[in-house]
Here is the input.
Amino acid sequence: MMGTKSLRQKAFDIITKHLLKQGRRSTGPGGVCMYRGSGGLQCAVGCLIPDIMYTERLEGALLYGPLIEVLRDAGWGPLVVEQECYSLLAASDSLNSARSVISKAGSDGTTLWALQGIHDGTPPEEWRRNLRAYAKVNGLKWPRCRPSEGYIK
Here is the structure.
């Protein structure tokens, strides 16, 4: 069984590579962020949801209820059961920058909320800098994401 830190690093690697390769927010009608948006785009949390487990009923679901069940079944349970997720959720509507996400996330299991906040609350051209800052604050290693390999700068 993988420890929480290993799961956090694995999730960070997957999400960082995904966001920097995609380079665009996953949105639906009206620009609302979605787990699976138009044109096959996926948000930070959406890229962790296996295709076979995704249903439209997850859209609008926060990190609880049906979504938490899907993520647990996919092996991400330890990342989403922390109470801190819910307090960060309360602030997520007013996030103007990744700085507030990073400072609120700490290293307490709120990895998914923090990375989702970077996706939802900052422009894609700032993702690399914000993801690096999050990694530094939380003792995570930076995955190989070179612009020459198709990742955004």
Remarks:
- The chain has seven helices and no strands.
- The radius of gyration is 14 Å.
- Residues 80-109 have pLDDT under 50 and may be disordered.
- The longest helix spans residues 4-22.
